[in-house]
Write a structure and sequence with these properties.
The protein is an alpha/beta fold. It is built from twelve helices and ten strands. β6 (about 105-115), α6 (about 120-135) and β7 form a beta-alpha-beta unit.
Length: about 270
């Protein structure tokens, strides 16, 4: 566990114990969409804004490596599907823990859709990846989403709490999941998950204030950070929105206070 603890310090801010993580793994799922056509450029922007870590696929870990500037923790995403496939909810393994180690990764992540038709296969993969992570001292972030025919509402407290608990029970060190929409219900999700929980950013939002209020609500309910992709890398200024999110996550600013942070802020 010593290696896991050391690597987790490269993902979570040592002073606050929280993390601002920027997923950039969307290129496999939906292609080179706006904001991530150049992984290196967006990595520069979010690093300058204060992000703690980024999530990328193994290829992007190579062509997105900067080699300069502020350090940015590297989490290699191990599973994938494409929007063009017959079942985008079915995530399959496309990289290994050992590959991530050779790349110098600080952690790995895997995506599981709880309730999907291929749930059993994804749970098996999560268990296997967890075993390798424990063997090598590699932190594991599990993206746990309730999705499938039985799931009536992906933002239901009941479903999100169940999905988050599954990730923790099967060995994840960090669970990423949907925000329920309010601090009271999400506090119960956090209470039922014995490992740190970070919230997903969800679909692209129109209002930056709404995004910051969501982050504020999650942090106030016990979340240990965020893992927000599109709402950061498709922002007009990814560095600025990252800085504002960091203001909420690390400085406990209210949403309105964070929104007042300017591009010239430290």
């Amino acid at each position: 566990m010593r290696g896991t603890s050391i690597r987790l310090e490269r993902i979570f801010n040592r002073d606050t114990g929280n993390a601002v993580i920027i997923p950039m793994d969307h290129g496999v799922t939906v292609g080179p969409i706006r904001g991530i056509k150049s992984v290196k450029s967006i990595a520069d922007a979010v690093a300058s804004g204060g992000a703690d870590a980024a999530i990328v696929h193994k290829g992007a870990a190579s062509f997105g490596h900067r080699g300069y500037g502020r350090d940015l923790g590297l989490i290699v995403h191990l599973s994938a599907s494409t929007a063009l496939g017959p079942d985008p909810n079915n995530k399959v393994l496309v990289a290994t823990v050992e590959e991530a180690l050779k790349m110098g990764a600080d952690g790995v992540s895997i995506h599981v859709n709880v309730g999907a038709e291929d749930e059993s296969h994804m749970l098996y993969t999560l268990g296997e990846v967890s075993r390798h992570c424990q063997e090598w001292g590699m932190p594991l972030l599990a993206m746990m989403y309730p999705r499938g025919k039985k799931i009536k509402d992906e933002y239901s407290e009941e479903y999100i709490a169940h999905a988050a608990r599954v990730g923790a029970e099967l060995g994840a060190d960090i669970v990423k999941t949907n925000y329920t929409g309010d601090p009271d219900s999400f506090s119960r999700v956090v209470e039922g998950c014995p490992v740190p929980v970070v919230i997903a950013g969800g679909p692209k939002v129109e209002s930056e204030l709404d995004l910051l209020r969501m982050v504020e609500g999650a942090i106030s309910s016990g979340a240990r950070g965020v893992a927000i992709g599109r709402n950061v890398f498709q922002h007009d200024s990814p560095a600025l929105i990252t800085r504002r999110i960091c203001g909420v996550v690390h400085k406990k600013l209210e949403a309105e206070e964070a929104l007042a942070i300017s591009s010239a802020a430290d």
